[in-house]
Design goal:
Elements (H helix, E strand, L loop, with lengths): L3 E4 L2 E4 L4 E7 L8 E7 L6 E7 L4 E3 L7 E6 L4 E6 L8 E10 L5 E5 L3 E6 L1
Parallel strand pairs: 2-11
Antiparallel strand pairs: 1-3, 3-8, 4-5, 4-9, 5-6, 7-8, 9-10, 9-11
Length: 120
């Protein structure tokens, strides 16, 4: 079991920056992978960025060079630093954790979501 608490969303002008935080209730090294997903109105939920316990990362093409996912192991927290924000980044952002429930099954856990709105 893992609980995820998100913060950092808000309203920002295009070109601005925000940092989203996701605090986990257990060591992030005990979690197979964590990531950020977003869902904009009228669109399917999409993966934004992921980070494994090893520290390896990957990003959606649409955010490469603008967003950075990172972790603070001491705080059991994963961050998404967003810069050069665009109106198309507007979405509800959810933190996700994949945790081994059995030797063969990964369970998904989700944060409550935080709204990011980028104005023109």
């Amino acid at each position: 079991q893992v609980q995820l608490v998100e913060s950092g969303g808000g309203l920002v002008q295009a070109g601005g920056s925000l940092r989203l935080s996701c605090a986990a209730s257990r060591s992030i090294f005990s979690i197979n992978a964590m990531g950020w997903y977003r869902q904009a109105p009228g669109k399917q939920r999409e993966l934004v960025a992921t980070i494994a316990s090893s520290g390896s990362t990957n990003y959606a093409d649409s955010v490469k060079g603008r967003f950075t996912i990172s972790r603070d192991n001491a705080k059991n927290t994963v961050y998404l630093q967003m810069s050069s924000l665009k109106p198309e980044d507007t979405a509800v952002y959810h933190c996700n954790a994949k945790v081994w429930a059995t030797a063969t099954r990964l369970d998904n856990y989700w944060g409550q979501g935080t709204q990011v709105t980028v104005s023109s």
